[in-house]
Amino acid sequence: MNVRIDDTFVCESANVAKGAIYAVDAGASVISMSLGCTTASRFSRGAFDYATSHNVLAVNAAANEFSFHQNFQSVFDDVMTIGANVPDNRNLTTTWRQKASFSNYGAHLDVVAPSDVPGASMGLSGAEPNDTAYTGTASGTSSSTPHAAGVAALVFSRARDLIAASLLPVGPLALKDISAQEVRQIINQTADDITPADGTSYAVSVGWDKYTGYGRINAKRAVDRVAANTIPPEADINSPDWYTLVDGTVTVRFYANARWASSFAYTLEVGGGVEPTSFSSLASAAGVAANPALSSANRVDNFSAGWNTASLANGLYTLRLRVTDNLGNAGEDRMAVWVRHPDPQDQPGFPRHFDGSLESLSVALVDLDDDNELEIIFADGNGEIHAVRSDGSDLPGFPVHTDLPRNLPLATSPAFDGNPANGEVPVAYTPIIGGVAVADLDRDGQQEIVVGASDGQLYCWHADASVCAGFPVSTDHGTSRDQYPPHAQIPNASRGEGIGATPALGDLDGDGKLEIIVGAVDQKLYVWHADGTRMAPFPIALFDAGSAPGVSTFAPKAIISSAAVADVDNDGVNDIVVGTTESYSSPQFAPGVGGSGRAYLVHANGTIAAGWPVKPTSINPASVPLVAEGVGTSPVLANVGGDAKLEAALTAFLGDATIYKADGSTFATMQGAPFGATGAGSDLDETTPEGGLARSSDQPSHFYVAEGAFADLAGTGLLDYVAGEVGNGLLGFATDDGTPVVFDHLLSVWSATTGTQVPAFPRVMEDWQFFTGPAVADITGDGLPEIMATSGGFFVHAFNAAGLEPTGWPKLTGQWQTSTPSVGDLDGDGTVEVVQTTRLGTLFVWKTAGGACQTDQWRKFRHDEWNTGTFGKDTRRPARITDLGAAGGAGTVTLSWTAVGDDGRCGTAASYDLRASATPITRANFASTTPVGIAPPAAAGAAESRTFAPPAGTLFFALRAIDEAGNAGPIATVGPLTLRRVRLTHAGAGQDRLSLTARIAALLAPLGLPGQNVTLVLRSGATQFYSATVPAAALVPNARGTRVRFRDPTGTLANGITSLVMGGRTRTDVTIRARHLSLGGAAAGPFTAILRIGSLELSATGTLRAAGPRLVLP
């Protein structure tokens, strides 16, 4: 059966999971996939666990990327990875034991299978091909995988024929069939080992190697192995999983059995590297009785062993399980994992692992809860959006999530029937690829989080995890192309067209609120207002009217490029710059070579600017659907020319990065040669970091699918352009697919003004920089920035302008990164952290010495939290004032506080927004309160006070700082808190007691009670000596809602507080008692009590006086 799962082999994981479940339920024995999914989830992993539970073997193509990285579903434990082999020479073939140059390789490779498939017209000369008639009809690991699936099907069929004929006895077996694990073992164990004696061009070895796995599949040997006494035992290492990070003593769990024999022996061992030269035993046993009640379909661990990694160096290690039955048959499994000991620069609480992949290109660092510490906000392959605090904990209310994937068979498939015996599949939500945008969309003082998902919906949540009114919204419903003749158009009645790009935010209509701008796979550019309504005339279809009559309804060209938003032409209105995956034969890269892509400058009124679209040329502008097609990467903007207009940097896959003027003319082309410096190139070892200089033979370099950034690396005021590239050696693939293609992945830096490559660059990277881009910030504290860059390889680098990396860099992740590093001061300690996510679900945070108040360069994907892609754009708001106090005078009020900055606590804000009211001021009513004009701010950290005559009848005040870009900080509030009585009893450390009564000139409801945390803070002079918080959930209201009460005789729930009562009919009286305290910091003299109710802060001052062992007021 053929199961349609997507429009292309670059697939969405939920669709693959649904397809796998359908295939299993329809009776498949083998699932053949030539796919590379953009995400992974507990749902997609669970679908292949479900397949194993139903004795179905899944195989997937290794991919054609000349790489070792970790594609989905190839790195799922229950999926075989199939590489490609080709003839040693297309015209003078002597052997089919040559690894295909393009075929991915690495620790997770099982076997290789033929790729260049002979055509029907291929003649034979005896037993050998007639080379003069040789043609290839298919190539790539996509054509290799069906061969392996076919062999698997033959093995299943042979076993079932023998069982039906009673030649393969199954009487004592619970699974009366050959198991999927046994089929996998047969394919691996009967493969033709490719060794140095075969004359291959790769460094293969006897036995398993990373280039050809266990060897080339052999259908006859596999089928012949199916007999009563020759079926191999099962061997399966279940945990740790592929490329997991381990430390300390690790429990290795595995399954071993010999169902067709009476007993077996096993050895579990470990060795260093992908291809260890030696192994050390971790566990072994002999004479173990076979268990006919078990099979791989049970998905159990029947053995485990401890592995102490404490004395091992960081690096990749291979676990190997070998099982031999009493008949002499052998089975084997391998699992590669990373030993990674804690890094001295790891932020406490990290790294943290999630069960969904973390491709989210945009990871935002934003203060959501107004505590002046940044949360890490990102999306995952489960369709969940996380907000993680600087200590690694989740912000309350998070994660939030998208909707369930459409058309799940929840009521029809045993996968969801609630019976664990059927292999229950966990559900995940619609995946997110592009990432998050975060801003105060409607300017109400609360941040919003925006994401687009593959179901064509755009989602929005407030910082408190509530859904924004009017959301989610959907793209237009369209049709999907059936890849099989007659290529019918299938209506997408249940979903909009998918969103793979990252939303950008900007004010397009001039009302001060932000619009949401994003393209979709239907070749349309969408714009929504902050309330979820569409902005006219959007959506608009983007196509080059001079090259095409319109958008093809048969196969529209997706917009996966994230839009850049800024006033490009200096007319006072923001514009949009975005690329599409269109590709055309004209103009060409060179006469008769390649073609071109398209990128557009779109005005806020929906018209395309004169001189656009621009047409960047490429050697091959349509190599891989979506991934390497047209202008799939995202334009970036900066004022490079020094006039009032902005320039845009962009290009097509395998072209030269080009900077365009606002009128569409070329400002500068980034030159692929000469390099700024050359060196030895890569060491071709995926387990060690690169970072050196590129080999000279790789000139000229070419842009591909990495993202770009602008920065001033030398501090001269002149901008550089930074982007990932690929060396010219890649083009050697065009001449032959069996000869090794030697090329490097590069991080290039050019003078944005001249287009020449700067000295000390390009630097060599480990792997493709798919959709990731550089972040640029000072992480050493020397005042000059570093470039943080990563790839499909296993490291994160940091290069300064001289190409050097600071001590402790590069950082080991052991996994593939598509997200760009993000930089910010998470914990408010004055230095920045670097945040990185991986496709296998790990979140890293590293502390650095870079100052928080540094010159902004390019701190994350698309530069800023709004994803504008614009150098110099200010989207960071001032910090929240935390020490606002009030004192009354004769007809006046004096407010005092410490100044915050322009960006957080850095710089000088532009103005203050002070409000007064007779009732408590909240974010919701702030705009309706009375403004009070006061003098502008001083520099961050300065002590400030303002004395003014308050508007008549006002009791409460709120203050926020506003920067020169109009970004407003969170509000700080203060109101009348009258201290009536304070008693602090010093009875010895741990035995001190507190009693406090106070009065608030407002009722509970305007204070937000019940439903808010209540925090008490006490200060002696400027020194805080006590703080305790009573959680909102612990405050019990009375029937009328006029009083709340907290009781805890033990004092363990709220730092010693045993009783808190608040309420009254005309005002709120407060009584707090606490004991078992240590109040040594309290002293006679000036005293401040602060009562925080949610975000509302009430404070009062007085003077404590000594009275024996007590301090009292009055």
In CATH, the topology of the largest domain is named: Methanol Dehydrogenase, Chain A
How far apart the termini lie comes to: 86 Å
CATH class of the largest domain: Mainly Beta
The CATH superfamily name of the largest domain is: Quinoprotein alcohol dehydrogenase-like superfamily
Shape: globular
| Number of DSSP helical runs | 6
Class of secondary structure makeup: mainly beta
Strand content: 25-35%
Main beta-sheet strand count, sense and barrel state: 11 strands, antiparallel
Query: What is the average of the pLDDT values?
Result: 93
Strand element count: 71
Give me the CATH architecture of the largest domain, please. 8 Propeller
Q: Could you characterize the architecture of this molecule?
A:
Strand 63 and strand 64 (1023-1030) form a beta hairpin. The chain is globular and about 100 Å long. The chain has 1114 residues and is mostly beta strands. The model has no long low-confidence stretch (mean pLDDT 93). Helix 1 (13-25) packs parallel to helix 2 (42-53) and helix 3 (141-164) crosses helix 4 (180-190). An eleven-stranded antiparallel sheet has the order 64-63-69-70-71-61-62-68-67-66-65, with no helix packed on it. The longest helix has 24 residues, at 141-164. It folds into five domains: 1-126 and 133-231, Rossmann fold; 233-341, Immunoglobulin-like (Sandwich), CATH 2.60.40.10; 352-421 and 428-851, 8 Propeller (Methanol Dehydrogenase, Chain A); 885-957, no CATH class; 974-1113, Immunoglobulin-like (Sandwich), CATH 2.60.40.
